[in-house]
Each structure stands twice: as C-alpha cells, then as structure tokens.
Amino acid sequence: MKLSRRHSLQALTAAVAMPSLADVQTPGIRLVVLDVGGTILQDRGDVVEALRGAMARHDITVGAAEIGPWRGASKRAVIRHFVDQQSKQSDGGRETLAHEIYQDFVRQVNEAYKSVPPIAGAEETIRKLRENGYLVATTTGFDREIVMPIFRRLGWEKYFAAMVASDDVLQGRPAPYMLFHAMEMALMNSVAEVMAVGDTPLDLQAASNAGLRGMVGVLSGAGTEEQLRREPHTQILASVADLPALLGPKR
C-alpha cells in the first residue's frame, strides 16, 4: 500500500506492523532527538539547490538525484565527496576547492533559511514533549554556523537540552556520533532511553548504528515512505506533530 505524506496518523499506524513505543519501552524514553531540515523545518529544496549551485560555479557538476542518497549527511562531507570524484587537482588543491565551495554554499543557505518556516505543529510538539517530561535535543547535517542563526530567529534555543551540528563530531550520519554527543550533553547514560526522529534514510541508519530504543521516520521531508521503510525503524509517522500522541506523558 502506497501512502502519501499527507495521510493521517491513523492510516500510517494501521500500515505499521509494530507495537507502540508505550508498549515496548523498558525503561521509558527520556530523550527525543530531532533532526532539523525536513523534520522540524520545512524542506523546500533549498539545500540541494544550494549544493548544486555552489559546486557548479566551481566546475563540479552534480544532479539532484546524485545528492539524494546524501540527504542528512554532513554538507562538508557531501561537497568533499563530489570534489574528490571529479577534480583532478592534488589533495591540497581539492581541499581548498571543497572549502571554497562550502563557503559559497553557506552564503546561499543562510540567505534561504532567513524565511524557511517550521514544519506545521513542530514547535507545539517540542513544547508538549517538554511539558510531558521529556528532554528534547537536535542533530543536523548543517554546521553550527548555519543552524544556530535559524534557532535564534525562531527563538527555539530555550527548548533543547542539546543542539548538535555536523562540525561537532568527526563523522556525521550514518555514523552515530552526533546522537551520542547529544546524549552526553543531555546527561543520558542509556541508549534504551533515547529516541531519534528524522526524515531521511541516513537519520534512521544513524539511530540504528547507535542502538537506540526508538527510531522514528517522518514523511515531512526528503525521504519517501518506501525509502524509510527499507531502514530499521520502530515507527513511520506523517510528521513530528504526531509524536506527542505516540509517546504520551513520560512514565
């Protein structure tokens, strides 16, 4: 059965042959780690276009389909991958080129994200989770210089026990280190008490590699239902707006 991203929670829940986390969590979830772009902020395609444009201006030609499998990864890593693939320069030359492309990308994305709105219901979800006793954190494939101005614009910094960017760790998704760093900052000891939520296959792969209790895909961003269901997951939801109903008050 193929579902659109706009299907209700009831339709999605009926299609997921897995129990509610409320039935399986032992001990209960205490920390919910949210991806940013496509999960709590709308994905308008700005990131892909900024990557393509920045690389094209430096003679690195990449199509949207080639970038697709990298959605959710460190943007520095994405750029370096395609530079290494196409550039004939020396190692030092490729490093310089990748840095120049990245700075071009940052300028474009910072401009675009001055107006990118949240996913419908995202802020209400974050507030409700906190009211219900959960800690909330974020991880992102953006570097800190991109994501922090967004949070400041929205006034969201106050909500999060941890805000982890791709440049806070040596390896981004699908490696689990951003999630572990979020746990460290939130003073969490057990992966059995942590849920990660994201819109891309790499989000779910990172959650699986971290061994988290909850691995939730959302259909509000880059990943299709078919793509997300191929990855390890506990739930697939329409959007983060459905999280409070899934989790309920913390035990």
Class from secondary-structure proportions: alpha/beta
Mean residue pLDDT: 85
The N- and C-terminal alpha carbons lie at a distance of 34 Å
Main sheet strand line-up? 3-2-1-4-5-6
Strand content is 5-15%
Description of the structure:
The chain has twelve helices and six strands. With 251 residues, it is an alpha/beta fold. It folds into two domains: 9-43 and 117-247, 3-Layer(aba) Sandwich (Rossmann fold); 46-112. It is globular, with a radius of gyration of 18 Å. The two termini are 34 Å apart.
Question: What are its keywords?
Answer:
251 residues, alpha/beta, Rossmann fold, 10% strand, disordered N terminus
Helix-strand blueprint:
Layout: H1 9-15, H2 21-24, E1 31-35, H3 46-56, H4 64-67, H5 75-86, H6 91-112, H7 122-131, E2 135-139, H8 144-154, E3 162-164, H9 177-185, E4 194-198, H10 201-210, E5 214-218, H11 225-229, E6 235-237, H12 243-247
Overview in brief:
The protein folds into two domains: 9-43 and 117-247, HAD superfamily/HAD-like (Rossmann fold, 3-Layer(aba) Sandwich); 46-112.
